[in-house]
Amino acid sequence: MNKEIIISKNKTKEAKQLKVKVIKDVIKGKLKPQRLKGFNDWFAGDMKLREYVISVFKKVFESYGYEPLETPALEYTQMMLDISGDEAESLFYRFKDPGGRDVMLKYEVMTGMCRAVAQNISNLPMPYKRYQIQRVWRSENTQRGRYREFTQCDADTIGTTSMQADAEFIEMGIEITGKLGFKDYIARISNRKFLAGIAQYLDIPEQSIYGFFMSIDKLSKIGVDQVIEEMTERRGVTLEQAKKCMQLIEPSQFEKMAFVDVANSFMNTIGKTEIGKEGLDELVEIDRYLKMSNFDEKYYRFDTTIARGLASYTGPIWEFDVIDGGVGSIAGCGRYDKLIGRYVGRDVPSTGGSFGIERVCDIIKDQGIINLGKTTIDLLVTIFAEDLFENSLKVASQFREKGISTLVYPEVEKVGKQLQYADKKGIPWVIVVGSDEVKQNKVQLKNMKTGEQSLLSVVDAIETVM
Questions:
Q1: Cα–Cα distance between 338 and 43 in angstroms, integer?
Q2: Integer distance in angstroms from the first to the last C-alpha of the chain?
Q3: What is the pLDDT of residues 202-226, one digit of tens each?
Q4: Which of left, alpha, beta for 314 (phi over 0: left; psi -120 to 50: alpha)?
Q5: Out of 3.40.47.10, 3.40.350.10, 3.90.110.10, 3.40.50.800, which CATH number does the structure's domain 379-465 have?
Q6: What strands, in cross-sheet order, belong to the sheet with 328-335?
Q7: What are the structural domain ranges in the chain?
Q8: Is residue 387 scored above 50 in pLDDT?
Q9: Between the ranges 121-125, 234-238, 453-457, where is the mean pLDDT highest?
Q10: What is the 3-state secondary structure (H, E, C) of the chain?
Q11: What is the band of 1 on the pLDDT scale with cuts at 50, 70, 90?
Q12: Angle 117-118-123 from CA coordinates, rounded to 5°
């Protein structure tokens, strides 16, 4: 019998056995609610923060002329292979759908965008600037700020080789980081061509170059000695080449130098290679555009040690680092001029970057940068008695007409219990409509934070809450 048929039958048998077990557990009341590791449930407080953070991204993106795009959660796997590198491909949620198609959940939004742009390239005026805020899935080890399902906030400019597009994203990303409330942050910038120039200058074998880049990228995390060890034991690099590389890029020697001076300091070494000079020239051009925009150099620097993981990067690369609390990178960005060309047979210059919404939100919560409360509800209207239900509902409608989020308690309970409910949910205001208040055509407004309570007309109560 065909091996694939046997596997299919075994899977069908396993599925039936699982279904029978679930039915038995339901009957016995033993079906335990479980959430998959690396996936999250987001309740009101988290959603409020997420929506606020997303709104900051949207406003800034649109202020720079980016338009929204959305692509499917599922893509053909063949569209995504050989883009992100072998390490990334090992993390794909990849499977056969019921029609036998080899598909995968979106690993990142950029690759789906590239496919969509290629498929519609004759209809899109170039340059095309888009932003995309969607869920992605990666089967990786989980930790704080790193999940298997998360939201990427992406923006890209397609169809121009101008370094102005790269400089604009750097400026835009720094603006976003500031608007999110971070105080100490910086853009760390390099160039894959500069790194390729190092490899060429040191005669690193072609087949070892990508691994060589990935070792450089670990320098700030594991230190010089371990990078040298990794290069020589795993990357096909000689000890002499590894040591020379560390001497060239060791970051402390550039700490007090201006961006353009760091670039110029490599012109007599890395700049003697064609690819290295091209990368350095691009970095100088980015610096020039940033200065044209009166962009303060305290917000960016030439970092010789970043390489970025994606195999598809072809030019400038950068990260946005939050320095407070040693947070590190909150975004990965770069130029990828050949990726869309996979689908159309010619290079389509592209550049942009991606923020992880969950990571940003976790940092904001950990550092107490923003406190938006636990709920989206502004006001609770109590039900004092059955015969006053209509009065409470009419009062609630008046508040809603003014754009105030208002929850009506659904049944008659002691007012104390209704107040406890509001307190537990973090609702800041409560309205009590009792018989005395109805006679006076007024309401009791209670501030749940201060405990202060006032007898007011509905109009005055609305003005107070607003």
A1: 41
A2: 73
A3: 999 988 998 888 998 888 888 888 9
A4: alpha
A5: 3.40.50.800
A6: 67-68, 128-137, 149-158, 350-356, 328-335, 316-322, 185-191, 300-302
A7: 1-34, 44-367, 379-465
A8: yes
A9: 121-125
A10: CCHHHHHHHHHHHHHHHHHHHHHHHHHHCCCCCCCCCCCCCCCHHHHHHHHHHHHHHHHHHHHCCCEECCCCCEEEHHHHCCCCCHHHHCCCCEEECCCCCEEEECCCHHHHHHHHHHHCHHHCCCCEEEEEEEEEECCCCCECCECCEEEEEEEEEECCCCHHHHHHHHHHHHHHHHHCCCCCEEEEEEEHHHHHHHHHHCCCCHHHHHHHHHHHCCHHHHHHHHHHHHHHHHCCCCHHHHHHHHHHHCHHHHCCCCHHHHHHHCCCCHHHCHHHHHHHHHHHHHHHHHHHCCCCHHHEEECCCCCCCCCCCCCEEEEEEECHHHCEEEEEEEECCCCCHHHHCCCCCEEEEEEEHHHHHHHHHHHCCCCCCCCCCCEEECCCCHHHHHHHHHHHHHHHHCCCCEEECCCCCCHHHHHHHHHHHCCCEEEECCHHHHHHCCEEEEECCCCCEEEECHHHHHHHHC
A11: very low
A12: 65
pTM of the predicted protein model: 0.84
Question: What local confidence, expressed as pLDDT, does residue 266 receive?
Answer: 95
Asked if pLDDT for residue 19 goes beyond 70, the answer is no
Q: Provide the token pair at 83.
A: 């883009």
Question: Mean pLDDT, the chain, as a whole number?
Answer: 89
Cross-strand partners of 383: none
Query: In the chain, what percentage of residues exceed pLDDT 70?
Result: 92
CATH architecture of 44-367: 2-Layer Sandwich (3.30)
Which tens digit of pLDDT belongs to each residue from 114-148? 999 999 999 999 999 999 999 999 888 877 667 89
pLDDT tens digits, one per residue of 55-97? 999 999 999 999 999 999 999 988 877 766 667 788 888 999 9
Contacts of 377 by beta carbon, 8 Å cutoff, 6+ apart: 405, 406, 407, 425, 427
Token digits of residue 345? 């047979």
